[in-house]
Amino acid sequence: MLSLQEIILLVIILAALALIISNRLRADLVALLVLLALAFTGLVTAQEAVSGFSRSAVITIIGLFVITQGLENTGVVQWTANRLRAIGGGSETRLVLLFMATGALLSLIMNNIAAGAVLLPAAIQVSRDSGVRTSKVLIPLSFGTLVGGMATYFTTANIILGTILTDQGQVGLDMLDFLPTGGVIVLLSLLYMATLGRRLLPDRESVGQNVSPHSLSRSLSETYHLEERLWEVEVPPGSRLVHATLQDSHIGELLGITVVAIWHGGHAILAPVPTQRIHAGDYLLVLGREDRVTRLAEWGLIVGRQHANNGRHYYAVDLTEVVIPPRSAAIGKTLIDLRFRNKYGLTSVALWREGRSYRTDVGTFPLEVGDALLMVGPANRIKSLAQERDYMVLQSSHIHQPPRPEKAGWALLITALVLLAAIFTTFSLAEVMLAGAAAMMLTGCVNVDDAYRGIEWRVVFLIAGMLPLSIALTNTGLAARLGDIVSSLAPFGPVILIATLFTLTMLITQVIGGQVSALLIGPVAVSAALQAGVNPQAAAVAVAIACSTAFLTPIAHPVNVLMMGPGGYTFTDFFKVGLGLTLVTFVGLLLGLALFWSI
C-alpha cells in the first residue's frame, strides 16, 4: 500500500510528465513548478529544494557550456568543419561515415547540440558539392553526436547518473566508466551505418538542395514546390496601388501575399521595405495562393505567371536557407514580431517544419528550434544575417566568422588539460570543469558576456529544478519500492535486469528526452541494482546510455530537431534508421558490460 507521501509524489511526477509531453509549458518552467510543489508539500526540505543549483552536476554542465563556447569562439570547431569540406568529396558511404565519426568525436569534449550545430553547415555544403542528398548525411551526423555522448562523462544524462549514485552513498562515475563501453557502441554504430543504415536513409529533396545564387524560380519550385504560387503582377496606370507604399497598400495584411521583389525602372528591388513606393508600370513578383493573388485583379492589377525561366523580367536575387538553432532569441516569436524584413532586408518565402513546406502567411508562424526558412534577398544582407547568433545560415560563403581565431591554441590546450585532469587526477569533475571555464575567460578565448550567453540556462534550470525530484524519490521510499519491483527480475540474471532498465529508459526518452528520463529512472535503477546485488555503477552506465539512445523520434533530442528542416525529414525517417541503431546500441551495451563490468 502506497503512503500518502508516495501518492503525492506520483501525482507530481505524472502532472509534470503530462505538461512536458503536451508541450503546454516549457520543460524548464515545469521543473521549477516541480521544485516548488515538492517544497510546499514537505516531500523535501527547503534546503533540498534549492540544492540543485549548487550541485556538482549543474556546475559541471555550466563549465561544459563555457568550454564549448570557447572552442566555438576561437574557431577550433569551425576549423574542423573546414577540413571536412576539403576532404568530404567522394562516395555517399564516405560522407556518411565522415560526418557520423566527426560528430561522435566532437561530442566527447563538447555539448551534443553545439557539435551538431557547428557541423551542420559543413555537412550541407559538402553534400551539395558531392551531389549527395543532404537527407543522406544529416541523420548520420545527428546520431553520431548521440553515440559519441555515450562514450564520455560530459553528457548531461551521464553527469546526472553519477550524481544520483553519490546521493545514494555509492561511488560515482568518471570518464573511464563510459569510454570503453561507449567506444564499443561507437564502432558498432559506424559499422551499422556503413552497411544497413545508409540504405534506410531517405533519398529526398530537402531544403536548399542544389541551391545557387540567381536561381530563385527553379529552387522554389523544386525545393518548396512553389511554382504554382509565384506570380508576376503588372501595375498599370489607374490601379489603386499607384503611388502607394507597400505598407499603405495592405497587400500582405488583407490578402496574405508576400511581395518578393519589385521590377522598377529596368532593375529589380529585392526584398523591398514597407516604405517602398509603387509606381505605374512596375511589376511585382509576389508569392501567394491563386485564390488570393487573383483578387488583385479587383485592385486594377494585371495578374500573370512567373514560371521557372519564362518570366518577363530577371530578378537577380541570392537565395539561402536559415535554420533556427537552440538558444535562439527568435524561438516562440514570429517574423512579424521580430520585424525581420525591416531589420535584415530579407524576405522569407517558405518555412519547412517536420517534413512539410508552408508557403502562406509564413511571417505569422511562431518559430521553433529546427525550423528552416527559405529566404531571398541581396547577398550582402545574407552575409550580415550570418553574423547573428540567433540564426544559422546554411551557406558556406556566409558562415559566421569566429571572433577570436588567434586564441585557438589556448582553447585547445585548456580543453586537453581538462580532459587529462578529468581522467587522471582526483579533483572532482565540477572543480575541473569550472577551472576550465575560468581559464577560457582569463586567456581571452571567450569574454564573460559571451560565456554567460553560451550557457544553456534552460538546461541548467531544468536539471536544478528536477534534481530534488530524485531526492524525493529516495526520501519517500518510492524509488526503493519501484526498485523492488524491478529487482524481482534478479532471478533471471543481471543481464535481464539491466536489459529491462535500458528498454524502459530508452522508450521514455523518445517522448520526454534523456535529461528528464535520467532524473526519473536513475534513482529507481540504482535502488533496483542494490537490492538485486548487481553492480550499481554498471546499472547507472546502462541507464545513462539509454538516455542517449534517442534515435526513434526527432523530439527525443534537440540535435534531431535541428536536422529536421535542413534534411527535409519526417518523423518516420528517424524511426526507420534509428530502430536498427537502437538494437546495435543494446548489443554494444551488453558486450561492453560483459567485457568491462563482468556482467
Show the helix and strand layout.
Layout: H1 4-22, H2 27-40, H3 46-50, H4 56-73, H5 76-87, H6 92-107, H7 112-130, H8 138-149, H9 156-167, H10 175-200, H11 216-223, E1 230-234, H12 246-249, H13 251-255, E2 258-264, E3 267-270, E4 283-287, H14 290-293, E5 302-305, E6 318-323, H15 340-344, E7 347-353, E8 356-358, E9 372-377, H16 379-386, E10 392-393, H17 408-424, H18 429-442, H19 448-454, H20 457-475, H21 478-487, H22 494-512, H23 514-532, H24 536-548, H25 558-567, H26 571-596
Helix pairs in contact: 1-2, 2-20, 4-9, 4-17, 4-18, 4-19, 5-7, 6-7, 6-8, 6-10, 7-8, 7-25, 8-10, 8-25, 9-23, 9-24, 10-26, 17-18, 20-23, 21-23, 22-23, 22-24, 23-24
Strand content: 5-15%
Overall mean confidence score, pLDDT: 83
List the strand order in the largest sheet: 3-2-4-1-5
- How many strands, which pairing sense, and closed or not: the largest β-sheet? 5 strands, antiparallel
Q: Tell me the total number of β-strands.
A: 10
Structural class: alpha+beta
State the share of residues found in helices, binned by percent.
Answer: 55-70%
Low-pLDDT segments, ≥5 res: 207-221, 306-310
Please tell me what the overall shape is: elongated
Radius of gyration: 26 Å
The DSSP helix count reads 26
Whole-number total of structural domains: 2
Distance, first to last CA: 33 Å
